[in-house]
Amino acid sequence: LLRSSQPLTGHNRRRCPEDEKLLGTILDEGERGFIIDTRSAQAAKQARMSGGGTEPKSFYPQWRRLHRALERGRPLQESFIRLVEACSEPSPSMDRWLGRLESSRWLSHVKAALSTACLAAQCLDREGCKVLVHGAEGTDTTLLVTALAQLILDPSCRSLEGFQGLLEREWIEAGHPFQLRCARSAASHARGKQEAPIFLLFLDCVWQLSRQFPFSLQFGERLLLALFDNAYASAYGTFLCNNERERSLCKVKESTHSLWAWLNQPEERQKYLNPLYSHNPLVIWPSVEPQSIQLWQGLFLRWIRPSQHLDEAWAEIQRLVEGK
Amino acid sequence: VENVRLLDRLSSRRAVVGTLYLTATHVIFVENGSETRKETWVLHSQISSIEKQATTATGCPLLIRCKNFQVIQLVIPQERDCHDVYISLIRLTRPVKYEELYCFSFNPKLDKEEREQGWKLVDLNEEYNRMGVPNNYWQISDVNRDYGVCDSYPTEVYVPKSATAHIIVGSSKFRSRRRFPALSYYCKGNNASICRSSQPLSGFSARCLEDEQMLQAIRKANPGSDFIYVVDTRPKLNAMANRAAGKGYENEDNYSNIKFQFIGIENIHVMRNSLQKMLEVCELKSPSMSDFLWGLENSGWLKHIKAIMDAGIFIAKAVAEEGVSVLVHCSDGWDRTAQVCSVASLLLDPYYRTMKGFMVLIEKDWVSFGHKFNHRYGNLDGDPKEISPVIDQFIECVWQLMEQFPCAFEFNERFLIHIQHHIYSCQFGNFLCNSQKERRELKIKERTYSLWAHLWKNRADYLNPLYRSDHSQSQGTLHPQIAPCNFLYKFWSGLYNRFEKGLHPRQSVTDYLMAVKEETQQLEEELEVLQERLANLQKSQSGNNKVKSKQQDQSKQFGLYTSNNSLANTPQEYSNDLKSFPSRSPSQGDEDSALILTQDNLKSSDPDLSANSDQESGVEDLSCRSPSGGGCLPSEDSGKDSDEAVFLAG
């Protein structure tokens, strides 16, 4: 599984022999690969006008391109805001609720993200083909797909440690611009242009996986909520800045503490573990039917609905499992 | 009929070929493949519609829709055969006599005494005593002993002490279908009660002294309050329209000390249509999130569920918090009234949240009070306008509550699903006919078996591992959030998509936890025994300190409930683009065969396996069929090697 940003083909259909060679060496002779472009075919084509574009078939003959349009940027932020508004409104009628949920389109984005990640995983696992994922910048939807695909395919990513490693690799080191994306969240009136809840979308997808495979992830909702919180506002330096270069310039490693160090302390770690966890060596294929994708109540209704009864249930589960 | 194809509902590519059989009680499809010989049994009673579709090159499609939401798509090669099957099924699924129903031929191989015992499991007299009646305020009345006053009521009803026979009879003449106010639930703690009736025949201005006295009697039976609520569960407009037909609702001016309230639950026709629309959404092939949510909203289904729940909450609050008695009615007092009274009772009294208590609740508020099972669920061929998912809605309310309060119910989701299944299956005699009177005339108890006994026998499968009788959630009244709470109502895919295995997690957390619980218990018991033994040994070895180390050699092999996930599955078809590339993965057939339904992993309580392995409906098999772009399989993959299907040993 590889990731990159878009090729700078431009409207002149520029070529780059080094890039072609690089992609060529990845595949064996006669082997085919897939490129999953997280933009619609049209958007990708339009990108040529501003210097971007796609890999032309004639120059990259061994690669087959698939388009899966994933929402990003401003529209994704709008979707998020609409959902949060729908949740906080004490809407009088049940009628409107589903309509509001639908018009936020958030769950559609979750479905699309999971489907695309599954597609990538399927190419790798079922077709035995190599996959290159990119969108425009390679810093948002690209990472969403590659990180989710790894969770689906690789059991080592599903342990608490492995998941942290996944986050480090596929989000932090890979340069997801946390500072720009996670500035003010849904209640902000100052709608920054660069703001977008892609990382939250990722966490939501992970939550969907945990719901569909309750035994397969070593961590639970509590960790996902902690990550959500820390991405936006943190006492730790892990999610600061937009990339490794900035973190180095700001001397983050020298002047802040790592979130992981705190999370991995034995007493803390305990709280984030899933009591039902049992190592699952297989690939986990989620269902992306609408019935299978649910609203992440623990996040979106976190301050609205009482969690007491559900907390009690988890405590009971813990008790039962520990008793064993 | 041979060479019939059974299609995967969502993918016409995956079809199995087999033989179709029609018996007096079932439709049976047996697969040809020698390794599986999988059988799909469907009881005629379960079939709600049969659709003969246009003949194609491959044959004549026949679509069978069931009341338990199973959908079966068959393709019969010859048009003539298809027509015959169709005509036969039409006749078979429209019985005219009760004797045609399966319950009269079902034989679980129990003797006469066991059958009787089964019927005695739920005893309503015991229940009323448990509630605390009869007492100073409430008495049992046998005025209806020959069903002379009201033929849809039971022979024994509880009424206020001051309600004489004269008052009861007078009141019954002023009530639709003669269903006079009677006790549904009595709250020992504060003497408040829930009573139920039908609408008064008040028209615009009619009055009835006895009926007014009846309501007064109910009020007087609760010295702690100087008024009662009268709750009309209909929308105001409907109730008002009824006045033109000489019926209507209680006028606060005429009935002293009542506070009248409309709740606004729609009627059976609206509910029937609502369910129909929701099922259409479920039948969509690869719907988008948008299609699904809009479809769900347009059906209005969850809105109705919430309305019923809100009514129950209102009544429970009135009783528990205000200590005020409530009289509930709708039009005839056998649909919405039953729903609302039973939801309220469930919220108020933790007993009804136990398995036995729930059975008692259904017997009391649905069976004994004359809910029209035959008309509503089509035991016999009848007026399609009478069909309506009334009890299904109540059962769903319970499920919604279970989701909000996971520790509060002794039983689990499977219990509810199996009850729903058997409301329609007519395998047992509990839900036949329209009234107690009819059931007695047919001698149901002598000629059929009780579902409750069957469920009770298999109760281990129905337990909720998170339930503890000393847990705070299982004490006292439940308080569901009233507002905001729209988002708390979820689509119950466990019921409406019951047979689409791909949609549900392949392993049940409930089953896992139950096994853990059992194992822990066994280990604890074992530990006790060993500790005792050790103590004895130490005692008997007075001077000699040789303590034999007892090996745990007699320890049973505890079914190790590892959540071993080596269940093969195939991914949903996420994309059509891959087809053109040569696939290097093993053929999908290998994985499927690993997931054969075996006796080990079927719960013995599963209605698909009745006592003599009578499989009456689509087996809940775990074989994974990977549809194209359809229902899918959230499950662990076997990778390249088709693993032994290591199931959670039951």
TrEMBL record, chain A:
<dbReference type="Pfam" id="PF06602">
    <property type="entry name" value="Myotub-related"/>
</dbReference>
<feature type="domain" description="Myotubularin phosphatase">
    <location>
        <begin position="1"/>
        <end position="300"/>
    </location>
</feature>
<protein>
    <submittedName>
        <fullName>MTMR9 protein</fullName>
    </submittedName>
</protein>
<dbReference type="InterPro" id="IPR030564">
    <property type="entry name" value="Myotubularin"/>
</dbReference>
<comment type="similarity">
    <text>Belongs to the protein-tyrosine phosphatase family. Non-receptor class myotubularin subfamily.</text>
</comment>
<dbReference type="InterPro" id="IPR010569">
    <property type="entry name" value="Myotubularin-like_Pase_dom"/>
</dbReference>
<dbReference type="GO" id="GO:0005737">
    <property type="term" value="C:cytoplasm"/>
</dbReference>
<dbReference type="InterPro" id="IPR029021">
    <property type="entry name" value="Prot-tyrosine_phosphatase-like"/>
</dbReference>
<dbReference type="GO" id="GO:0046856">
    <property type="term" value="P:phosphatidylinositol dephosphorylation"/>
</dbReference>
<dbReference type="GO" id="GO:0019903">
    <property type="term" value="F:protein phosphatase binding"/>
</dbReference>
<dbReference type="GO" id="GO:0010507">
    <property type="term" value="P:negative regulation of autophagy"/>
</dbReference>
TrEMBL record, chain B:
<dbReference type="GO" id="GO:0005737">
    <property type="term" value="C:cytoplasm"/>
</dbReference>
<keyword id="KW-0963">Cytoplasm</keyword>
<dbReference type="GO" id="GO:0004438">
    <property type="term" value="F:phosphatidylinositol-3-phosphate phosphatase activity"/>
</dbReference>
<dbReference type="InterPro" id="IPR003595">
    <property type="entry name" value="Tyr_Pase_cat"/>
</dbReference>
<feature type="binding site">
    <location>
        <begin position="330"/>
        <end position="336"/>
    </location>
    <ligand>
        <name>substrate</name>
    </ligand>
</feature>
<dbReference type="InterPro" id="IPR048994">
    <property type="entry name" value="PH-GRAM_MTMR6-9"/>
</dbReference>
<dbReference type="InterPro" id="IPR030572">
    <property type="entry name" value="MTMR7_PTP"/>
</dbReference>
<dbReference type="InterPro" id="IPR029021">
    <property type="entry name" value="Prot-tyrosine_phosphatase-like"/>
</dbReference>
<dbReference type="GO" id="GO:0106018">
    <property type="term" value="F:phosphatidylinositol-3,5-bisphosphate phosphatase activity"/>
</dbReference>
<dbReference type="InterPro" id="IPR010569">
    <property type="entry name" value="Myotubularin-like_Pase_dom"/>
</dbReference>
<keyword id="KW-0175">Coiled coil</keyword>
<feature type="domain" description="Myotubularin phosphatase">
    <location>
        <begin position="118"/>
        <end position="496"/>
    </location>
</feature>
<dbReference type="Pfam" id="PF06602">
    <property type="entry name" value="Myotub-related"/>
</dbReference>
<keyword id="KW-0443">Lipid metabolism</keyword>
<dbReference type="InterPro" id="IPR011993">
    <property type="entry name" value="PH-like_dom_sf"/>
</dbReference>
<feature type="binding site">
    <location>
        <begin position="267"/>
        <end position="268"/>
    </location>
    <ligand>
        <name>substrate</name>
    </ligand>
</feature>
<dbReference type="InterPro" id="IPR000387">
    <property type="entry name" value="Tyr_Pase_dom"/>
</dbReference>
<dbReference type="Pfam" id="PF21098">
    <property type="entry name" value="PH-GRAM_MTMR6-like"/>
</dbReference>
<feature type="domain" description="Tyrosine specific protein phosphatases">
    <location>
        <begin position="299"/>
        <end position="343"/>
    </location>
</feature>
<protein>
    <submittedName>
        <fullName>MTMR7 protein</fullName>
    </submittedName>
</protein>
<dbReference type="InterPro" id="IPR016130">
    <property type="entry name" value="Tyr_Pase_AS"/>
</dbReference>
<comment type="similarity">
    <text>Belongs to the protein-tyrosine phosphatase family. Non-receptor class myotubularin subfamily.</text>
</comment>
